[in-house]
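Forgive a beginner's question, but would it be possible to get a protein, spelled out as residues, together with the matching C-alpha cells, please?
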Amino acid sequence: MNTFTPTETHRSEAGSFMMLMLVVIAAGLGVVALILRLFSPQIRKYAAGGVCRSTARLDGKVALITGANSGIGKETALDLASRGARVIMACRDVEKGEEAATEIRARVGGAKVEVRELDLADTCSIRAFAQRFLQEVDHLHILVNNAGIMMCPYMKTVDGFEMHIGVNHLGHFLLTYLLIGLLKRSAPSRIVVVSSLAHNFGWIRFHDLHSQGSYNSGLAYCQSKLANVLFTRELARRLHGSNVTVNSVHPGTVRSELMRHSTAMSLLFAVFSMFLKTPKEGAQTSVYCAIAEELQSISGKHFSDCAPAFVAPQGRNEETARKLWDATSTFMGLFPNRVGGALFPVRAGPTGVLDGELSQRCKKRVTSSCSSIVCMCLQHLCYQY
C-alpha cells in the first residue's frame, strides 16, 4: 500500500494548484485575445487619436525638424514636404537621414528635403549647425524640436551633461536660442516642442539636475520632458508680441525605435501594440501645431491628439520655469535675460563654470564623451535622432 508523507501531499496539492492557476490564466488570456480581435477596429480607431485636418499649403516656407530620420520626425517631415515646404532634416546619423530623405522624395514628387548633421549631445555640433544654417538659409518658419532619447543607461554628453536632460532639453534649448533671431525675422513663425505625458511624473531636481548623486533612467526621462514643458512656457512669455509662437505636444504612445534599447519596455509595447499609435498617427499633433490656422496666435500651451491637453501643476509653475531658464542659460554659457541669435565665445559645463575653450574644442570636434567601446555602443543604441 502506498503512503504519502505530509510533505509529498503538500507538493501534490501545490502542483495541482499551480496547474489550475495556469489553466485559469491561459483561459483569461484567451478571452482577452478574443475580445481584442473582435473589437480591434474600434480599439485601433480609438488608439489612433486626433488627426490634423488642415489643408494648409506651405509653399515658400522653410521647416527645420530635429530627429527626422525615423519615427514621428520622419512622418512630420513627410507631411510638411507634401504641403510644399522646404524641409531641413537635422540628424545625428546622416546616412539614415539620407535614406529617409530618399524615401520622402519617392513618395512626394518634387519634395524639397535636405539632410544636415546635428548632434544634440555636443554643443560644438549645435553651434556649428546653427552658424552654417544662418549663413545659408534666409528664412525659418517652422522649427520642430522632435529628437529625443528615452531610458538610457547613465551616460554623459560631450559637455558632461546627463544624457536625457542634455539632449532632450539643453541641446534643443541652445539650438532654439541660436535660431530665434531668424525665426523672428521670418515671422509669423512657429516652434513645436515634442514633450510627453511623462512630464506628469517629472520633477526638476535643481540640486542634482544631472543625476550625479543618484540615477534612474525613468526619472531622468520624465525630468527632461517636464523641462520641455517649462521651456515652452517660459519661451512663450519671452516671445510675447514677436509673432513667434511656441507650443509643446504629447505625441501619444507611438510604435517607434525609441524603446529599442529597453528590452522590458519593448516586450511590453509588443504585447500592447494594438493600443499604440503608428509614427504617422503620432506625428499628427506636431503637424497640427505647426500649421493649423486656428493656432496662429496661440502660444505657451500643451497639446495632445490635436487638442489642448492637461499640464501637470509642476509644468505650470512660472517660478520653476524661470529658474530652469536661468540654470540652462548658465550651463550653455548664455545670458539668461536675453533671447538672441548670437554665437557666444564661451560655454559652461554642468558646474556652471565657463571654460572659455569653445573655439579650440569646437575646431577639434569631440565625437564621444566615452573612451570605451562599450560606452560608445551604448550611445549608438540610445540616440534616436
User: Anything to note?
Assistant: Residues 341-348, 351-359, 365-385 have pLDDT under 50 and may be disordered. The domain at 57-363 is CATH 3.40.50.720 (Rossmann fold). The chain is about 45% helix and 10% strand. The CA atoms of residues 7 and 13 lie 10 Å apart.
